[in-house]
Design brief:
- The protein is α/β, with parallel strands linked by helices.
- Among the domains are: about 55-220 and about 295-415, 3-Layer(aba) Sandwich (Rossmann fold); about 225-295, alpha-amino acid ester hydrolase ( Helical cap domain), CATH 1.10.3020.10.
- It is about 25% helix and about 15% strand.
- A hairpin with a 3-residue loop joins β15 and β16.
- Residues about 1-25 and about 515-530 have low confidence and may be disordered.
């Protein structure tokens, strides 16, 4: 046995050594003197806003993640809030902008805009938290587009699931006005993040509301539509990844994007002319044009299909979503079978463009719906749903498993599932539509021996634009009409000789068209040069 006994150690230090050490150690530099001491700067070193008259308090925190990276987080607490739930949005689009839509002492105006369901947040008395994801704006760390979960595509120990967990853990421990319950919601990229929160969720996460979420970038969200690359999103890729704060801007030499794409012939050449090969995600797109493991491993519907269902989810889908029309329904199809009691997975289908559910939903393009469908959704579906799961004393929410707006009748329907013909007592009978000879659309299957095809000549040098020219960039304000192109008048395209148009006979009875994917065409063969 070895015993550790205290010992005395003697150290003899030479005076010369002490002198040498004193001379070698760097001296602490005093604060830099003012350049002009008699005429100092009038700007305070650290401004403390006077918020006494505001109806909310604002905090900015750098919340530490498990790997030491700190994420910039804005916390807005209504004055007088006690035992209030937290509504969290994580974003790559600048938390300061999302919480600073106006210079106001009132909570409503500063939140009125993307990505806030302002009336729900303010009237509901919620604590609002918005966080920059790692690598963007005020947050530390590295940015990766739609950062995959830890695994084959991400060798690091951190991802959006772990960052959400660590954030929620910090929030419930450091916001004294909170009741310890957190909901996460968001639109588009911000809608992808509530889905990531469902992987190994924090116990305090009580509800998730992904709206128009990015789910599978190859199958039908943002980057590709079943393999067809969406060149109009190249400016987004450039601006989102070129700098931390989106300071580098895409440029063009044409008013009409159609001319820009024709001049460069290929997306690869257009990217080269803009220096896009410097951006990491663009290189991944070039390396993975097909649906390989790179895309399959990141497909959120496939990921969640393998996860236990622990948190109630409300998926919000826009019928005319011009950006992410695939994702919400794909996730619903993947996780709804786990909801054996029909009380954990909810679906909303509204007559909106991408993100319109938090705006005025009275119309879209030339279509009028007879009422503000966005306000209806927020007040009669979203708020009761959130209140039920997040507030201590809220009544049970009377929200149907599926809430769908039926265009034509302009009526909200309460349905037990999707697809579903009515609330109860009816059987859904799908009727196939056939492309038949003479450019006809028919409910009757073609007979053997009928004309087998219709044809047209396609000129690759003159491709068919997806909407009437001039083709404008993606944009939601001013002259840009990007949000409404799915309801554009299609007569200009239908008059081209290189476009086939199939018409049915006049319908003699009402017919419901429900939003199923029309990807599985039978007996349809396209020439290799088709648009």
């Amino acid at each position: 046995m070895v015993l550790n006994r205290p010992r005395m150690i003697s150290i003899f230090v030479s005076p010369l050594l002490v002198l040498w050490l004193a001379q070698s150690l760097p001296a602490q530099a005093p604060p830099a003197p003012s350049t002009y001491p008699q005429y100092p700067s009038e700007t305070p070193a650290n401004l403390q806003p006077a918020m006494d008259t505001w109806d909310y308090t604002r905090r900015e925190e750098m919340i530490p993640m498990r790997d030491g990276v700190k994420l910039h987080t804005v916390i807005l607490v209504p004055k007088g809030a006690q035992h209030a739930p937290i509504l969290l949005t994580r974003t790559p689009y600048d938390a300061n902008v999302l919480t600073g839509h106006a210079q106001s002492s009132h909570l409503g105006p500063i939140l009125y805009g993307y990505d806030n369901a302002t009336d729900v947040i303010v009237a509901g008395g919620y604590i609002r938290v918005v966080q920059d994801v790692r690598g963007k704006y005020g947050s530390e760390g590295d940015y990766v587009m739609n950062r995959p979960l830890h695994g084959p595509q991400n060798p690091t120990p951190v991802d959006h699931a772990t960052d959400t967990y660590d954030t929620i853990d910090w929030l419930v421990k450091n916001i004294s006005a909170s009741n310890g319950k957190v909901g996460i919601l968001g639109i588009s990229y911000d809608g992808f993040l509530p889905l990531m929160a469902l992987v190994n969720p924090h116990p305090a996460l009580k509800v998730s509301v992904p709206m128009n979420p990015m789910v599978d970038g190859w199958m039908g969200d943002d980057w590709f539509h079943n393999g067809a690359f969406r060149a109009q999103n190249m400016p987004y890729i450039y601006e989102q990844e070129a700098t931390r704060k989106n300071e580098a801007k895409w440029w063009t030499s044409n008013f009409d994007d159609y001319d820009l794409y024709i001049q460069t012939v290929s997306a690869g050449e257009l990217g080269r002319r803009h220096g896009l090969e410097q951006v990491g995600f663009w290189k991944k797109i070039l390396d993975h044009p097909n649906y390989d493991s790179f895309w399959r491993d990141q497909a959120v519907d496939k990921i969640l299909a393998d996860q236990p269902l622990k948190v109630p989810v409300m998926l919000v889908h826009s019928l005319w979503d011009q950006e992410d029309i695939y994702g919400a329904l794909a996730v619903y199809k993947a996780i709804k079978p786990k909801d054996t009691s029909n009380d954990k997975v909810f679906l909303v289908l509204g007559p909106w463009h991408h993100g319109q559910e938090i705006e005025d939903g009275s119309s879209l393009g030339a279509l009028s719906f007879g009422s503000d469908t966005g306000a209806y959704f927020r007040q009669h579906v979203l708020r009761p749903f959130l209140d039920h799961y997040l507030k201590d004393d809220a009544p049970k929410a009377d929200v149907a498993p599926v809430t769908a707006f039926e265009t034509g009748t302009n009526t909200w329907r309460r349905l037990p599932g999707w697809p579903s013909g009515c609330e109860s007592g009816c059987t859904l009978k799908p009727a196939p539509l056939y492309l038949t000879a003479g450019l006809k659309l028919s409910f009757t299957e073609p007979k053997r021996g009928d004309v087998a095809f219709d044809e047209y000549v396609s000129d690759p040098a003159k491709p068919v634009p997806y909407r009437a020219r001039p083709s404008q960039p993606v944009g939601y304000s001013g002259r840009f009409t990007w949000p409404q192109w799915l309801v554009d008048d299609q007569r200009e395209a239908s008059g081209r000789p290189d476009v086939l148009v199939f018409n049915s006979e006049v319908l003699t009875a009402p017919a419901d068209c429900e939003s199923r994917r029309l990807h599985q065409w039978k007996r349809l063969r396209l020439g290799c040069q088709s648009d």
